[in-house]
Amino acid sequence: MSIIKEDDLIDSVADALQFISYYHPIDFVKGVHEAYEREESQAAKDAMAQILINSRMCAEGKRPICQDTGIVTVFVKVGMNVQWESSKSVTDMINEGVRRAYLNPDNVLRASILADPAGARKNTKDNTPAVIHMEIVPGDTVEVHVAAKGGGSENKSKLAMLNPSDSIVEWVKKTVPTMGAGWCPPGMLGIGIGGTAEKAMVMAKESLMDPIDIHELKERGPQNKVEELRLEIFDAVNSLGIGAQGLGGLTTVLDVKIMDYPTHAASLPVAMIPNCAATRHAHFVLDGTGPADLVPPSLDDWPDITWEVGDSVRRVNLNDVTPEEVKEWKPGETVLLNGKMLTGRDAAHKKMVEMIANGEELPVDLKGRFIYYVGPVDPVKDEAVGPAGPTTSTRMDKFTHTMLEKTGLLGMIGKAERGPAAIEAIKEFGAVYLMAVGGAAYLVSKAIKKADVVAFPEMGMEAIYEFDVVDMPVTVAVDSEGTSVHLTGPAEWKARIEEQAIEIK
User: Fold this and answer.
1) What is the annotated role of this protein in its UniProt record (predicted)?
2) SS3 label, residue 339
């Protein structure tokens, strides 16, 4: 029998969440580096370089890998012989650990959890409650997997109730392109097969707790049907040419994980959940001897990578940029932004569109300005702002035509692709959409020299800021003519991969 003290679980959860906020799993770092070394697409290679540089910076500075510090998911296996020295429930102890982690003044994590999700959507301020999956098992230990899952990748989760005769590989191959790049590839795919709908989803999520080992599996060969499926799906998805950040390339997924469970004879539930470039999870076991001891990785485990933009890069002064200048920018071109930009996410866009419809004056003048889709982490010490990477841009698509037409907005900056309606609006009004790398939030924040809230302070991280930036790197993702690199890039690399396969045969 083990006696687990209340503080041991609380402290272990809090420490683990801080730990994973700035330390990537080393297997993930190695996986991205291997993909970086193999990559032939320069755009994808540059994106992975930024991800790796950001990862090392976060490990050194102990600041979040991504501005979206996630919704906490915890898998707990409690031994039947365990006794608790606590008056709290296990759920309450875990949530207290989450609360302490996200309010830690040395490394404040962004509170993203909203209560009353179909109503007021009010921020809980401390990122609680966590999503907890608990199981009672034989033994006298408590085994815990802690993860922090970003909204951009979580929103791309898929569930299908296939017919038993349907091909799982074909469903995955057909479905992954519909996910776009908002899940920040390269990452992992977690797949749950069987059980019921909810069982498949939980298995897909739990499978993402395992380390990357697909290349070891390739070397030794599959030993069962699940391992055969992993390899087949891995090759099928990477043959799509989606690539890092959806820019086109050889690596879209670093690994495919599968868990399965017996199911009804008439059913084939299949769930798929991606993990993004901010993969964050930790595992610990409590046996009554104290809190978990999480050993930091060595900085020597990170590759020595530099990223240079080159002398020919276009530097832009946002304070006086004109529509005529924007028309000269080419798809895929790297641009360094300087000067002042505004920020705004879903809540701010919804509020502004409502104000426009009501004939109200907006609190900020958007004419000729650029708006960055970001909800930053609060600063610590001498930071102007905490990690400030982009959020998924397609969520703003429904507001884009109104914003461009009614405000004179010139440019937008975000993550991943834009949908057809947004692209048409960009083309109609001669605007531009720029892409920052998702998974490089701390690196991006170093370009931000000043940050002031200028509207909607009551929205917290969704408030409108004005950033003053120096050489913030972005890519022209949709030019003023409506050409999107998230369409042209993957199409080009899918064709290249197919041609290479034909030559190999």
Assistant:
1) Catalyzes the reversible hydration of fumarate to (S)-malate.
2) strand
Task: Name the strand (E) or helix (H) holding 142.
Answer: strand 142-149
pLDDT digits (tens, 9 = 90+) for 224-274: 999 999 999 999 999 999 999 999 999 999 999 999 999 999 999 999 999
> Which spans in 273-382 are helix H?
323-326, 346-357
Whether the bond between 222 and the residue before it is cis, its omega within 30 degrees of 0, is: no
- What span, in angstroms and rounded, lies between the C-alpha atoms of 305 and 67? 22
Which residues on adjacent β-strands are paired with residue 475?
334, 435
The CATH number assigned to the domain with range 314-489 reads: 3.20.130.10
pLDDT of residue 503: 45
Q: Which residues neighbour 343 within 8 Å (Cβ) at sequence distance 6 or greater?
A: 371, 372, 373, 374, 375, 376, 464, 465, 466, 467
Residues contacting residue 483 through CB under 8 Å, at least 6 positions apart: 331
- The residue behind tokens 């958007």 is 366
Name residue 284's beta-bridge partners: 144
Max Cα distance, the chain (Å) = 74
Orientation of helix 397-407 relative to helix 420-429, angle to 10°: 10
- Dihedral (C-alpha) 26, 29, 30, 36: value to the nearest 10 degrees? 180
The ranges assigned to domains in the chain are 2-288, 314-489
Q: What angle do CA 417, 127, 468 make, to 5 degrees?
A: 50
For residue 472, give both structure tokens.
């913030």
Please give the structure tokens belonging to residue 329.
Answer: 């920018």
Q: What is the token pair recorded at 118?
A: 């179909």
Q: Are 443 and 50 in contact (CB under 8 A)?
A: yes
